Amino acid sequence: MPQVKPEIEAFAKIKVVGVGGSGGAAINRMMANKIRGVDFIAMNTDVQALHYNSAPHKIHIGKTVTKGLGAGMDREVGRKAAEESQNEIREALKETDMVFITCGLGGGTGSGAAPIVAEVAKELGALTVAVVTKPFSFEGPQRGSIADKAWEELVKNVDTIITIPNDRVLQVIDKKTTLLDAFKIVDDILRQGVQGISELITIPGLINVDFADVKTIMRDTGSALMGIGVGTGESRAVEAAKAAVASPLLELSIDGAHGILFTITGGPDLTMNEVTDAAKLITGSAAADAKIIFGAIIDESMTGSMRINVVATGFDDRRPSTLKEDTAPAQNFFSGGKYMPSTFLRKAQKEEEEEEKKFKNFTQRNIPAAAPNPSEANKLAKDQDAGLEEDPEMPAFLRKRMGL
């Protein structure tokens, strides 16, 4: 009988755990977007919400604590529920290499149970990453306080935590956006945070990133920033890179990051010059000794456009607070807003003309339009390799990833 080869051979076993109502909604969004190479688990105290969740594996936590009725915005009830079901959680997460925990902080189940789930995952040796949201300010100071306390507990038990304040979403949506659509966008941002990292591992790329690379950047690094930028047309590389590092969804600027993991996805028309342009913009304000890992994926459907996912880690102890007033300028994240952190903007303005000249020359020297015949193509390829190997303008980490 012939064997059927799986669509993806994921050598790292990855599980995504959605905790509570918001986490469950994010799981539904991820499954609808067909994130590949990961297993989904929904955990909730609310048995009705769990019943309607799409996850193939569901865990009803705290059956005796809540009797299936939810945690009622009580973080202690959520914690007790997870402790009651700790053995079941442990069984579900054993022999897993990487665990994503996604939830909305501020309620009872996510705020109380997520730190327990993280603690179990870490004890089992999994790389543990939390992707969480904090509540809208209009939801009141009590919910904000619950979220802040839960965040402090969660960060102690994960390797990396990516935090998206819901208030930032208000800066990237149209004023006519409905309440339902606004919460769908929140769910989708959680989805993007998980997908942007997991697909680095599960989807083969032109320049691959493996699980060891991800661990290097994300193990025991605390708070992290996540940005996604999209660009189209001739300036797509710069446009996408600027949007990714300057997204209004980021808690802090990327300045001073000691670890940067980014992936560039483009069509078959993606050029080496564009990769270099984007890479220099992304890493320009990182720490001098930063670890930088990147991947490149060719997607036939993205001809003429480019998407860049950035995760930055290794910051000083700069922890976000829901209760802190946010005064960042409003920009449209989904249309590639041009807002940039002030330090990054000053640096980019100063170097922009010089960089443009350098990379124009770099492109002309190393990327010919076409070769008229196969023998000449081979000769040009060898010449290109030699030119790239000697070229001082290419960042060292790019040369290393290309084997130069």
Describe the structure.
- This protein has helices spanning 20-32, 47-51, 63-66, 75-84, 86-93, 109-123, 141-155, 166-169, 179-202, 211-218, 236-245, 272-283, 342-366, 374-390, 396-401; strands spanning 14-19, 38-44, 57-60, 98-104, 127-134, 160-165, 222-232, 259-266, 291-298, 305-313.
- The chain has a ten-stranded mixed beta sheet with strand order 3-2-1-4-5-6-7-10-8-9, sandwiched between helices.
- With 404 residues, the protein is an alpha/beta fold.
- It has two domains: 14-203, Tubulin/FtsZ, GTPase domain (Rossmann fold, 3-Layer(aba) Sandwich), CATH 3.40.50; 224-401, 60s Ribosomal Protein L30, Chain: A (2-Layer Sandwich), CATH 3.30.1330.
- The model is unreliable at 321-353 and 362-372 (pLDDT under 50).
- Helix 1 (20-32) crosses helix 9, helix 6 packs parallel to helix 7 (141-155) and helix 11 (236-245) packs parallel to helix 12 (272-283).
- 44% of the residues lie in helices and 18% in strands.
- The protein has 15 helices and ten strands.
